[in-house]
Amino acid sequence: MHGIPTLYIGVAAPLVEISRIWMTGLPEGGHKAMKDFPRREINAYRFKWLDDDRSVLTFHTGVRVPEARVQEVIEKWSGEQPACISTSHVEPVESIDHRRVVAELRATLQEQPVRIMTRVGLTLQQLQRDLSQHHPELVLLNAHGTPDGCLMFEDGRSGGEIVSGERLFPLLEPRPQVLFLAACHSGGVIRRAKETAEWDDGAIVYINTETSVKVTACAAFASMFYPALLQGHCVDEAFAVAQQFVANDPVMGDFSVVGESLAPSKKFCLADHGRQTSLAVPDFKAVDETDHASSEPPYPNQLRRTSERIVGRRREMQQIINAILPLPAGITAPGGQRRVVCLTKEGGIGKTTIALEIVDWIRERHLFPGGLFELSCESIRSEQELLSRLLSLFGLPRDEHRGDLLALLAEVIRHALPAGQPALLMLDNLDDLFGRQADVALHQRATEILERMLTTSGSLRMLVTCRWPLGLSDHEYQMEIPPMQEEEARDVFLSHLESPQHRVEVQETWAQPDSPIRHLIRMSGYHPQSLRLLARQMGRKGITLTHLRDEAHRDLLAFLQEPLAHDNDQDRLKKVEVSYELSYRHLSDAGKRLFARLSRLPGGVWCGEEIDDWLDWHDLLGKGWRHILEAELDYFALVHYDGNGGSGVFAMLPPMLEFARRKYDEQDDSEWDATWVDFWCQHVSGWNDLISGRVPDSWDIPDEQRGIVGLQMQLQATTCFEQTQDNWLTLFDYLVKADGSLATSLLLDMVSFARLSGQLMLLRDLSQMAVDKLRKSDTETDLAPCLVTLGNMLRELGAREEARESFREALEIYRRLAHTHPAAYDAAVAGTLNNLGTVLFDLGARDEARESFRKALEIYRRLAEAHPAAYDAAVAGTLNNLGNVLRELGAREEARESYGEALEIYRRLAHIHPAAYDSAVATTLNNLGNVLRELGAREEARESFREALDS
Ligand SMILES: Nc1ncnc2c1ncn2[C@@H]1O[C@H](COP(=O)(O)OP(=O)(O)OP(=O)(O)O)[C@@H](O)[C@H]1O
Ligand SMILES: [Mg+2]
ORC1/DEAH AAA+ ATPase domain: which residues (predicted)? Predict the structure, then answer.
């Protein structure tokens, strides 16, 4: 039985080609001398005659070939020194859409007896290494070719490296049995390789020298060619069927061409030698695919990508990648390499789009084996939150975020990032922490965090987007994202046009310098987001390019004297603003109103079948909200929809949100403001009830189902909280300034969720904010509960002494209030005593803790007598705490009593509300077991532990 053949797919897809362009005259022998042109010595390519009588020649060389060498070699040939016209000519390289080609091929060959290896980002050396390591029988090279016999490989840093046929072929060792050069003009490569490409023991498929070939044709050809080979046909036969297959294709078949053009199927050629080669194929199928990159680097939390494809930006991407990749060993940058690349400039210019595309590009090439990490920093409002999010990103569970978080982060990074293995952290949207409006102290502390990370790990690099430079002087390489190039801008516009007629019109009139499309593109400021808005305006009924051009021109005249003139930064920003206004102006009144109101919902509108039952958006946004969102706001690209399956979110990009906020401020919508406050307060409060897991007594549910129903309620509430977090936090920010009482009740409704989702840090910040604000007012009734919440968060985060102070301050207030209104505040006094007891216990002040619990218990017992349903749980909780302190104090009998009584109550409650109290029963049983063991009652102790495990 034979081994399974390997198909090696090498993809070279550089972003740009960087070359030197040279000019030289012909030597004495005239054109005959061209035969001896020293191409090989200087890797020359892309020859062109500059004049009609063909006496002046231009050609390119790679930038790695030293100028002096070119001068020397050419002078020897022509007798005169060549002139260097450009020392670094940058030409974007067209995408070859390899992701789809590879995916399609993998799907076709899924059931075939073949092992597939993909190498994206092929360099010449990598190819050589892969051939010698893996000995693939089938090699498919997917790359660009030049008409004069070269292939474009990658240079390892996103640039292209031109390799001529005579350099390539001798390196193809050991030889594959079948080589497919899927590159335009690849016949030229073979011609240049001469006898080194005459293989008797292997076949070569290539593309006709004179033509280019479409990626889709290559994919179709391969999808027929390889299965035929794997079924045992010789290359000659497999080639013929694959060619027929392309010829019969309904889109690119032989009937698709007009005039003299060569049909796609005829572009495929088979070298004369080795045509009878056939593969030794095993007689079994379906092999596990193995990829050479079996150990994928860590990539924990990917940010969401849009489905739209990025257009252009290859020059910028190349520069950024070049700056962010570690330098090769032995090469140093003067002054050291900067490890943070910060993409700056105004909103909507494409920073996030570029950054995400770069991460994808890097991931395909396995360039950061230490891992890729992405974090959106859009809603981060404090350095503690930033730290906490980073800790989670690097793998530390939230309930372990306590103590000195900065030191903890350093430790976690040391552990998560192996030394010497480059890792990349992408931080999107740092505007709120580092931007112009950010608080100076916050900016400074955020700077410290990034600097500490960089000094902790020498192999960590960061790719950051922020409208302004971060100011990390020693580490930062700042890169301003420029407006798009004119042709790229046109392509973005085209990519957002819906109507085929409009697309044809753009393409047909582009060449005319004064066409409406040229004007429109100029008036967009070459800003991608504006281009998208303008293109979407073409969806209006009856609109033409001329009409839209005139509208934009008229609007711009209010700000600019000459809208079509070349612009500076200021002018460009005005153009962007006008494109927003233009879209807004054409909304219906209801659309305008909804658009402005959405500025109060930075977390977007989360919707879907089930979700619409949980969140009654029509109460907030009015009855026809969904239709307006889809038919107007999404249609004109003012919002976008991110979703999969039946659920998703309608949201706005940051600059649009700012624009909507301005519109909201211009409208007087105070009545709706009240609806908005009410909407979130009610929902959050309702979810907080659900999260307790207490199924209301009034619900008619059989006992055995109460547990599962309670758990479902908790799950639903957690999801609702999570999905709308940015929205209710926005309300909280508003209420802290506007209404202390409502802010307090909203805060209290967040506590359970914050605990459950491990967001203690966030809740500590929010309660601190509320406390600071309320201390300045005279509303002690609101201040006290916020102090208690703050105390709880501080305690859970390990700041015990601060927590004790918070509880003491709250207790003082509650005692004062209870003095005059005992009925209203006794419970609060008891609750605070209980909390204070817990922190005193943590601090080792056991006697004081016991006193605190006893006092609390006394009050709760009294209250429970009158209202058992309301206070039984509190009595049990306090008994449990008291038991703990008694046990520590050596009063074991008393402790047992305490636990025993608590258990009895919890059992009763768990019978009615299992989801809410089952865990309390288990904890108390455990405590009881411990004290029974200490008392020597082994059998009883064992019974207690067993029951704890079962419950
Ligand atoms: N190269 C591109 N090709 C196609 N669309 C683009 C390109 N660049 C940006 N866009 C579109 O423009 C819009 C804004 O881009 P993006 O969100 O990347 O901007 P940004 O600079 O990150 O803005 P902000 O500062 O607000 O975060 C997006 O809708 C995106 O789809
Ligand atoms: Mg962005």
Answer: 337-440
Q: Report the pLDDT value the prediction gives residue 292, as an integer from 0 to 100.
A: 47
Which atom of ligand 1 approaches the CA of 492 most closely? 4
Q: What angle do CA 561, 565, 571 make, to 5 degrees?
A: 65
Ligand 1 pocket test: pick from 315, 352, 486 the residue with the most ligand atoms within 8 Å of its Cβ. 352
The answer to whether the CB of 467 is under 6 A from ligand 1 is yes
User: Could you tell me the residue ranges of all domains in the chain?
Assistant: 17-92, 98-270, 314-327+337-480, 486-586, 591-667, 825-838+847-951
Compute φ and ψ for 192, nearest 5 degrees: -70, -30
Q: Which atom of ligand 1 is nearest to the CA of 495?
A: 4
Helix H or strand E segment including 119: strand 115-120
What is the rounded distance in angstroms from the CA atom of residue 919 to the CA atom of residue 896?
19
Mean pLDDT check: name the lowest of 21-25, 248-252, 274-278, 332-336: 332-336
Token pair of 716, please? 């639903």
Q: Does domain 17-92 have CATH number 3.30.70?
A: yes
**Can you tell me the distance from the alpha carbon of 749 to that of 506, in angstroms, rounded to the nearest whole number?**
55
Q: What is the largest CA-CA distance in the chain?
A: 116
Best of 306, 480, 529, 583 to mutate for ligand 1, by most ligand atoms within 8 A of CB? 529
Q: How far apart are CA 288 and CA 311, in angstroms?
A: 36
- Which atom of ligand 1 is found nearest the CA of 347? 25
Is the shortest distance between the CB of 349 and ligand 1 below 6 Å? yes
Rounded CA-CA distance 687/272 in Å is: 74
Structure tokens at 60: 């390119």
Q: Which residues pair with 141 in a beta bridge?
A: 10, 181
CA dihedral 266, 270, 272, 278 (to 10 degrees): -140
| Chain CA centroid to CA 398, Å | 21
Dihedral sign, Cα of residue 163, residue 165, residue 171, residue 172: positive
The predicted model gives 750-776 an average pLDDT of 91
User: Domain spanning 314-327+337-480: which CATH class is it, in words?
Assistant: alpha beta
Counting ligands in written order, the one closest to the CA of 639 is 1
Q: CATH fold of 591-667, please? A: Arc Repressor Mutant, subunit A (1.10.10)
CA distances from 715 to 254, 611, 706, 756, 911 (A): 59, 13, 14, 11, 20
- Going by CATH, does the domain composed of 825-838+847-951 fall within 3.30.43.10? no
Q: pLDDT tens digits, residue range 186-233?
A: 999 999 888 899 988 899 999 987 777 778 888 889 999 999 999 889
User: Which residue's C-alpha comes closest to atom 27 of ligand 1?
Assistant: 347
> Are residues 802 and 769 in contact, defined by beta-carbon separation less than 8 angstroms?
no
What are 284-303's pLDDT values in tens digits? 555 544 444 456 788 888 88
Q: Summarize the confidence of residues 161-186 as an average pLDDT.
A: 92
d(CA 690, CA 614): 12
Flag whether pLDDT at 566 surpasses 80.
Answer: no
Query: Which two structure tokens, joined as six digits, stand for 571?
Result: 């002018």
How many Å lie between the centroid of ligand 2 and the Cα of residue 491?
Answer: 21
Name residues whose C-beta falls within 8 Å of residue 541's C-beta, 6 or more positions apart in sequence.
Answer: none
Q: What is the pLDDT of residues 421-465, one digit of tens each?
A: 899 999 999 998 988 888 888 999 999 999 999 999 989 999 999
Measured distance CA(443)–CA(797) in Å, rounded: 24
pLDDT in tens, 792-812: 999 988 899 999 999 999 999
Q: Which atom of ligand 1 is least distant from the CA of 484?
A: 1
Beta carbons of 747 and 764 less than 8 angstroms apart: no
Angstrom distance (rounded) from CA 841 to CA 858: 19
